[in-house]
# Entry
Amino acid sequence: MKAAIIAITLLVAGALASPARAGTSEDVRTLYNTFAAAQNAHDLKMVESLFLDSPKFLWVSDGLSIWGREATLKRMALFQEAETWRVEPALEKATVVEVCGDTAFYHLPLDLVFGQKGAAPAKFKFLVSMLCIRTAEGWRIAALFTTTQNPKADGNGS
# Structure
């Protein structure tokens, strides 16, 4: 058991110490860009195609764990009922962290803009991390972790 924990720790440490390979990094960035565009187009069918089709798909949002692709899409559909709803990702601050050849995290800050007709839309700062895996059908999102950004954070981990 102890040997397994050490092996896993070394694997994760090695992945964090080395940047993502060019192909993986480009593929994961393309996956996110497609995901953001589908969200902004309110195209939940496209969003669905980008999610891993598994009951173990996980979205942690607002302190809630939402399990499964269908439950996630239902919750997203509720948000997209707003007159104005879009993500404005800070792509220049995005980071790909390769865990292994077929798995990577994508992390970035974004502004979530939403509001109702007749009112100025609100803008909220979020941090998004998504777990991406390569499948036989291509790269898919296996998990999303979203949280509001701490206004005291300087982007350097403090």
About this structure: DSSP finds four helices and seven strands in the chain.
